[in-house]
Write a structure and sequence with these properties.
about 325 residues; 6-stranded antiparallel β-sheet; alpha+beta
Length: about 325
């Protein structure tokens, strides 16, 4: 009788231990499932916030296009652009525009460390695809080897090391435009042997791959005017003249040139220009290197979610056409 009691007790003890093990295993499984569910929820929230940031960035692009389309020179007699227009710089129009649980900003880094809240005018830069060799040669940090490599690339030839001594002059001449390979973006310069990221960052404010090669004299950097061959004094004088009486660019008293026909006449009448600069200015105007309007703009729009601080940036380059038509010619997201 006592043996049976002990046997039953032992069986009950074994069952209790087994039950405890099963309960522990089930608890661990449950904890793992809960953890996986929590991770999945966090991932879903992250993707949701990331998607919201992307849509906010797209809203910024549409906002910028609306401002660009409303510019006076699209459907009026005004045919020039200057730095005192809304698209050029306006913190009230482009900084922290709130929508729902987030906001977007439209800004880019110019030559300095501070952001410019506005659209980047590609026509204020020198066109990498259209510039003459001597213009590119004047870029800071440019060497004969780098310049030759750039034009070899444009001709579809394999880039070479700096050890090759072939004369750049023998390459340039007057190549047919149909024989030349265009850069789609200035970032493609990094594909060329000898061109470094430091070079690209130094040249970025002054170079573009968009447009027909014409530089807007009303918005061009003084450095770009110098790259085109003008003296430092004449470049500074042009900037001062177009900036108006207060000598500050982007203000109401700016005096942009209204047509290409008046550029040389106004400069000759109001400034003392060296004879060599006068000759060069006439050539730049006649050969279509200078203009008074801008057609290509880059929009850097970043959407932010306020809850998680997630951001999404869209960079779009657009071509503005007559009749309130704007065509997107470049697009990237990050």
């Amino acid at each position: 009788m006592s043996n049976k009691v002990f046997q039953i007790a032992n069986e009950r003890g074994s069952l209790s231990i087994t039950a405890l093990w099963l309960l522990s295993i089930l608890s661990l499984i449950a904890m793992g499932l809960v953890k996986n569910v929590m991770v999945s929820v966090k991932i879903d929230h992250f993707h949701s916030d990331e998607q919201q940031a992307a849509w906010l960035a797209r809203a910024g692009i549409n906002h910028a296009l609306s401002i660009l389309k409303s510019d006076d020179n699209i459907d009026s007699l005004k045919t020039y652009d200057g730095l005192n227009e809304k698209w050029a710089e306006s913190p009230t129009a482009f900084r922290k525009i709130e929508i729902g649980n987030g906001y977007f900003e439209i800004a880019y880094i110019d030559k300095g460390p501070d952001a410019v809240f506005g659209l980047c005018d590609e026509n204020r830069k020198l066109n990498l695809n259209k510039a003459e060799p001597q213009m590119l040669a004047a870029l800071p940090g440019m060497t004969p080897e780098k310049l030759t490599a750039i034009f070899k690339w444009k001709k579809g030839k394999k880039p070479f090391s700096s050890g090759i001594t072939e004369s750049a002059n023998s390459l340039f001449g007057k190549p047919s435009k149909t024989d030349m390979k265009n850069f789609r973006s200035i970032e493609e310069l990094l594909l060329i042997k000898g061109i470094t990221a430091e070079d690209l960052n130094t040249w970025r404010p002054f170079l573009t791959a968009f447009g027909d090669g014409r530089v807007n004299i009303n918005t061009a950097y003084p450095e770009v005017l110098q790259l085109m061959g003008l003296s430092v004094e004449t470049a500074k004088a042009i900037i001062a003249l177009r900036s108006g009486p207060d000598a500050v660019a982007g203000t109401e008293d700016d005096r942009p040139f209204e047509t290409t026909d008046v550029i040389f006449r106004e400069l000759q009448n109001k400034l003392k220009i060296k004879e060599e600069d006068q000759i060069l200015l006439q050539r730049l105007i006649l050969e279509g290197y200078l203009t008074v309007d801008s057609k290509y703009f880059t929009i850097h729009s970043t959407g932010y979610t306020t809850r998680k601080g997630i951001r999404h940036t869209i960079t779009a380059t657009v071509e503005r056409r007559p009749g309130r038509d704007v065509k997107i010619v470049g697009w990237s997201e990050s």
